[in-house]
C-alpha cells in the first residue's frame, strides 16, 4: 500500500534521491509506480512545470500539473505558485533527454487510495500552505488542500491563524468533516489537550507566561497554552498580542475558570510558540474538553 504525504516530505529522502539518479532509475520508478519529488524550477509561458530529475530534463505538462486544471476547476495560478517549491509526480514517458511527469496522477491516486478512506476523527499529518483570516489551508497529501478553520485551531480565541501556525509548518490535525465533493475540513484543538491536561502543570501561587488575546471592559483574557486561557482584571494600556507574566490567583475546575493577576505586559516576540500535542495518531470518536463535574460541558463528537 502506498503512503501519501504532503509535498516536501519526500524531497530529501534516500529513496527519492536514488530514483532520481539517472534514466535507468527513473524507468524503475515508472515500473514501480513510485511517487517522486523535486523542486519546480520554472513555469513556462504555456504553464508547463519544469523540474530537475537527475541528468534529464523533467517536464510536467500543464494538463498534468494538478487535478482540475484540464476542466477549469483548478486555476492556473496553482501551477505558477509551485515554482521554487517541491512537487510530487509520477514518471509518464521518455522522449530523448526529456522525461514527462504527472503531478495529477499522484493527486488522483492520493484521493482514491488515501483521502477517500478517511473518516471524521481520523488523525493525519498536514503542512500549512496558506493563511487567511478565516483559517489555514493545509496540504494533506500530494498538494491537495484541506481547510483548518480558525475556530478549530485551538480552544483559546485567536484573531488570525498566524497566532497559532506558520506557513510551512508541519502539524497534526483530525478530520472534522468531508463534504459531498470530497473537500476535507480539519480540526486541531482536540489534539492539544483537555482543560485538566493543560492545567496539570500550573498551581495557585505560580507566576507563569502568557499572551494577551482579548481585552474587554470587564477583564483581560490571557492565553496560557493553546487550549487554555485565564481572566485577569482590566488594566489600561494592555493590548491583544502583548506578552504577559501573570500570577495564578485561583483555579476553579467546577467552573472551568482560572483567575489571574497581570504582573507585566509588553510587546515582544509575536511568533506562535511550539505546539504540544496530547494525541498525534489514531482516530477520535468523542473528545471532552471540560473537566468532570463542570457546570458547562465542552466536547466534540466526530
Write up what this structure looks like:
The chain has 302 residues and is mainly beta. The protein has three domains: 14-112, OB fold (Dihydrolipoamide Acetyltransferase, E2P); 123-191, OB fold (Dihydrolipoamide Acetyltransferase, E2P); 195-266, OB fold (Dihydrolipoamide Acetyltransferase, E2P), CATH 2.40.50.140. The chain is 12% helix and 39% strand. It contains five helices and 17 strands. The model has no long low-confidence stretch (mean pLDDT 95).
**Low-confidence segments:** none
How many alpha or pi helices? 5
Shape, per Cα inertia axes: elongated
- pLDDT average, as an integer? 95
User: Termini, distance in Å?
Assistant: 26 Å
Spatial sequence of strands, sheet with the most strands: 1-2-3-5-4
Strand content: 35-45%
Query: Which class best fits the helix and strand makeup?
Result: mainly beta
Number of domains: 3
CATH topology of the largest domain, anyone?
A: OB fold (Dihydrolipoamide Acetyltransferase, E2P)
The level-1 CATH class of the largest domain: Mainly Beta
Main beta-sheet strand count, sense and barrel state: 5 strands, mixed, barrel
Proportion of helical residues: 10-25%
Radius of gyration: 23 Å
H and E string: HHEEEHEEHEEEEEHEEEEEEE
CATH architecture of the largest domain, by name, is Beta Barrel
CATH superfamily of the largest domain: Nucleic acid-binding proteins
DSSP E strands, number? 17
Amino acid at each position: 500500500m502506498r503512503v501519501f504525504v504532503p509535498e516536501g516530505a519526500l524531497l530529501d529522502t534516500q529513496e527519492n534521491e536514488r530514483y532520481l539518479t539517472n534514466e535507468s532509475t527513473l524507468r524503475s520508478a515508472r515500473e514501480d509506480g513510485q511517487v517522486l519529488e523535486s523542486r519546480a524550477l520554472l513555469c513556462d509561458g504555456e504553464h508547463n512545470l519544469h523540474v530537475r530529475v537527475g541528468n534529464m530534463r523533467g517536464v510536467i505538462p500543464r494538463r498534468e500539473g494538478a487535478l482540475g486544471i484540464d476542466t477549469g476547476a483548478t486555476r492556473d495560478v496553482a501551477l505558477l505558485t509551485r515554482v521554487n517549491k517541491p512537487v510530487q509526480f509520477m514518471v509518464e514517458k521518455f522522449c530523448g533527454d526529456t522525461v514527462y511527469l504527472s503531478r495529477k496522477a499522484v493527486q488522483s491516486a492520493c484521493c482514491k487510495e488515501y483521502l477517500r478512506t478517511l473518516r471524521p476523527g481520523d488523525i493525519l499529518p498536514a503542512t500549512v500552505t496558506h493563511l487567511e483570516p478565516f483559517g489555514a489551508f493545509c496540504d494533506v497529501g500530494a498538494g491537495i488542500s484541506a481547510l483548518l478553520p480558525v475556530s478549530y485551531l485551538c480552544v483559546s480565541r485567536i484573531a488570525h491563524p498566524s497566532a497559532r501556525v506558520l506557513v510551512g509548518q508541519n502539524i497534526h490535525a483530525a478530520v472534522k468533516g468531508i463534504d459531498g465533493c470530497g473537500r476535507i475540513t480539519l480540526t486541531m484543538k482536540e489534539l492539544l489537550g483537555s482543560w485538566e491536561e493543560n492545567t496539570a502543570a500550573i498551581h495557585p501561587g505560580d507566576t507563569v507566561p502568557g499572551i494577551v488575546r482579548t481585552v474587554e471592559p470587564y477583564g483581560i483574557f490571557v492565553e496560557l497554552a493553546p487550549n487554555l486561557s485565564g481572566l485577569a482584571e482590566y488594566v489600561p494600556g494592555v493590548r491583544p498580542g502583548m506578552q504577559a507574566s501573570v500570577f495564578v490567583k485561583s483555579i476553579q475546575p467546577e467552573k472551568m475558570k482560572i483567575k489571574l493577576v497581570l504582573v507585566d505586559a509588553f510587546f515582544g516576540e509575536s511568533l506562535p510558540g511550539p505546539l504540544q500535542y496530547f494525541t498525534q495518531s489514531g482516530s477520535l470518536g468523542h473528545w471532552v474538553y471540560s473537566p468532570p463535574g463542570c457546570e458547562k460541558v465542552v466536547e466534540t463528537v466526530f
